[in-house]
Write a structure and sequence with these properties.
The complex is a heterodimer of chains A (191) and B (192). With 191 residues, chain A is of the alpha+beta class. Helix content of chain A is 16%, strand content 48%. Chain A starts with a helix and ends with a strand. In chain B, strands 1-2 form a two-stranded antiparallel ribbon. In chain B, helix 1 packs antiparallel against helix 2, helix 2 crosses helix 3 and helix 3 runs antiparallel to helix 4. Classes of the chains: A alpha+beta (191), B mainly alpha (192).
Chain lengths: 191, 192
């Protein structure tokens, strides 16, 4: 009897979720084409900016302008694929004091909500880096292109919020705390 | 007051350029050698950041100094010097100027090739002169070091020559580059 009630409750809950989704409209599932997508960051080292990219990342995107409640991003970034156009700097960034890729090889970003803004959209989501999870808002624009779409956006974060800077690297005198993130994703529909 | 460039003394501005650049060059050697012995890290980064800021300062001062020199020729060398001594003195000064430009330029180029842009004390960033190029970086770093060694040799020669003029020949070659020595200067004039 109890089991039946649990089953029917689960069914009801599923039906409610389905109904909510149906009411909100369906979001299209996409994934980012790795060859035409870029995930970049800009840091400041000794007063001068430097640019880096992550060559490997997986972006699962569900998005529809008329179904924001059902839209979400789920992005996995391979931190080993960091490239700042200098091997010494890359090695330092991968090292125990910064990304510590030996223990935390990926960063993970998952959105909680997406809302419309005057110029595009804002996603509120959580970034997990070095075992620390913090909210990082992303401003982005979505442009449908053929069967796919182009997703372009930016975010700002503080590296020390995630402990990306231990020991001497905790100082912000020579490496700034603020890091700018930007991305351009070429989205292909999943089906 | 007589025109400094014909009175046998360097102008006050020329003296200021000389001593400020001399102090910066000495600082550059200290910073470079200190940083060289350090592993990659914040400390090395900080020392090299200062080294680059000072280096770009030297480059700017060297340009201004050369412009000043064109308008205000240095005093004549003392009459007692032999032909060879004159050639040596001139050559040393020419090489000095070449190195005052070549050192910061190779430094700026090697930073560019390494993709470590040069900031000036965090106030602004100099543009990269060339793109990322590991082979060019290695070549430029060797060049920077060799020129640094050459600068050390030339500076040593320069200092030894200045002291030789002062203590051995007893002319006013050193004094005319020293500020605040008018009395000493008058003495040497009396002697000649």
């Amino acid at each position: 009897m109890t089991r039946h009630r649990d089953a029917s409750m689960a069914l009801l809950a599923a039906a409610a979720v389905w109904a909510a989704n149906a009411w909100a409209g369906a979001a299209t599932g996409y994934s980012a084409d790795p060859h035409q997508s870029r995930l970049e960051f800009v840091g400041v080292q000794a007063g001068a900016e430097f640019k880096g990219v992550f060559h490997k990342f997986n972006a699962d995107i569900a998005f529809a302008p008329d179904a924001l409640a059902n839209s979400h991003f789920d992005v996995q970034i391979d931190l080993n694929s960091v490239d700042t156009m200098d091997k010494d700097r890359d090695t330092t960034i991968r090292g125990a004091d910064i990304f510590d890729v030996a223990h935390f090889s990926t960063a993970h970003y998952v959105t909680r909500s997406i809302t419309k803004t005057a110029t595009g959209y804002t996603a509120v989501g959580a970034l997990t880096l070095r075992g620390v999870t913090k909210d990082v808002p992303i401003d982005f624009q979505f442009t449908a292109a053929g069967s796919g779409a182009r997703l372009e956006g930016s975010a700002k974060l503080k590296r020390l919020d995630f402990g990306a800077g231990q020991g001497d690297w905790k100082s912000t005198e020579w490496v700034a705390d603020a890091v700018k993130i930007s991305f351009v994703l070429a989205l292909r529909p999943n089906n | 007051m007589p025109n400094p460039s014909t009175s046998g003394r360097y102008t006050a501005v020329a003296q200021a350029f000389h001593w400020v650049i001399a102090l910066l060059v000495v600082t550059q050697f200290v910073l470079a050698n200190w940083a060289d012995g350090l592993p990659l890290g914040v400390h090395k980064l900080a020392l090299l950041a200062r080294h680059k800021s000072f280096g770009m300062t030297v480059l700017m001062l060297a340009i201004l100094r050369l412009l000043w020199r064109l308008k205000h020729p240095p005093p004549e060398l003392p009459p007692g010097m032999t032909h060879l001594e004159r050639i040596l003195a001139r050559a040393t000064h020419v090489v000095f100027y070449v190195l005052l430009f070549a050192m910061p330029m190779t430094g700026w180029l090697m930073s560019s090739a390494k993709n470590y842009s040069v900031s000036w004390f965090g106030w602004f960033t100099w543009p990269n002169l060339i793109g990322k190029n590991e082979a060019a970086f290695d070549l430029l770093r060797s060049t920077h070091h060799i020129l640094g060694d050459a600068l050390f040799v030339i500076a040593t020669l320069h200092i030894v020559a200045a002291l030789k003029h002062h203590f051995w020949t007893k002319d006013d070659v050193l004094l005319r580059m020293l500020p605040f020595v008018r009395i000493e200067r008058a003495k040497s004039e009396n002697r000649s």
